[in-house]
Amino acid sequence: MSTSPPRTALRDPVPTPAWEPPGTPGPAKSTLRSALELLAAVAVLVALALAAGQGDLLLVIVCLVVIVMVHELGHYLAAKHGRMKVTEYFLGFGPRLWSFRRGETEYGIKALPLGGYVKIPGMTNLEEVDPADEARTYREQPFHARLLVAVAGSAMHFLMAFVLLWALLTFIGLPNADQVEIQGLSQVGNRPGPAQVAGVRTGDIVVSLDGRPVRGNSDALISAIHDHPGRPVTLVVDRDGTTHTLVVTPADGRTTHEQGVTVPRGTAPFGLIGVSFGSPVQPVGPLRAASAAAGRNRRLGRDVPAHGAGVPADRRRALQDRERRRVHAQQRAGAVHPGLGRQAPGGRAGPGP
């Protein structure tokens, strides 16, 4: 009968882990985990900014980040178009916080958000580059390709301006100089003004006054109200496509005070109804908005009507003449700051603040 030799610690040593030098990094974190940690940190910063009442500052920072990265995107796209090798597209500088790789390019965020960059090998003649990549370096490309990369970042700013203007004109619009809108209601004599009592609402479009069409002529409207203290006037307004006829009796500004209105010289009574006038802002069509955003109409607020087409020279002169008459009428009515020669804020009917 055979017997097995006894086991000893020397014959069966306990396995020990392999020795690692000090400072050896542990297993790398996954891209998903790094992204979640970064999002959590950003969420905390956003919450702190909002809690401190710095929402506006946060919005400015976000806009600056977008502008910087769109600028860098121009360089990136131009380099790719020229078949150059792009190795990095990063927001910020310093230590890497988070990144991922797609193809030959690494995308990510670094610790110091002081700008952004796109890394293209061979930007200088002294840079050492892998010989296998030399043909795709910046320095090996023809002049027109290098020039395109250089100017593409700045060109993106013009593209951003065009897109923002197009969105503004399409979804918000332009002031329509051919209409007068009720843009605000105010108290007269510490009580609701005559316009509010008669049923006038903010956003109403004034169609006519005592049977006379207004058609954007706010000076005639102001003068008529000024000349009817204590006497009713018939105001026709368009409210969401429905016509309403309202009877408004202007208060006498000599005996009743409206906040922000300065009583003119003299003793003659003048009418107040407690409203402020302006031009309604109306969206324009996408194609005409693109035309205006491209700069075909330089004075958007004056020379582009609601439909967005260019204004003929005779129409532009007529608008300018009407503006001069309006300011002159307001000066006579006391609706302009003495000595300043401009309409009071909000275009109040009656004497100006």
Essential attributes:
disordered C terminus, 2 domains, elongated, 8 helices, 353 residues, two-stranded antiparallel ribbon, Pdz3 Domain, alpha+beta
Descriptive account of the structure:
About 35% of the residues lie in helices and about 20% in strands. The chain has about 350 residues and is of the alpha+beta class. The protein folds into two domains: about 30-170, no CATH class; about 175-285 and about 320-335, Pdz3 Domain, CATH 2.30.42. Strands 4, 5, 6, 7, 8 and 11 form a six-stranded antiparallel β-sheet that branches. The protein has a two-stranded antiparallel ribbon with strand order 1-2. α2 crosses α3 and α3 (about 145-170) crosses α6.
Short synopsis of the structure:
About 35% of the residues lie in helices and about 20% in strands.
Q: Count helical runs.
A: 8
What is the gyration radius calculated from CA atoms? 35 Å
Q: What does the average pLDDT come to?
A: 79
In terms of DSSP E residues, the strand content is: 15-25%
How is the secondary structure organized here?
Layout: H1 31-51, H2 55-81, E1 88-102, E2 105-119, H3 143-172, E3 174-175, E4 180-185, H4 194-198, E5 205-209, E6 212-213, H5 218-226, E7 233-239, E8 242-248, E9 251-252, E10 271-272, E11 275-278, E12 281-282, H6 286-296, H7 300-303, H8 313-333
Antiparallel strand pairs: 1-2, 3-12, 4-5, 4-11, 5-6, 5-7, 7-8, 9-10
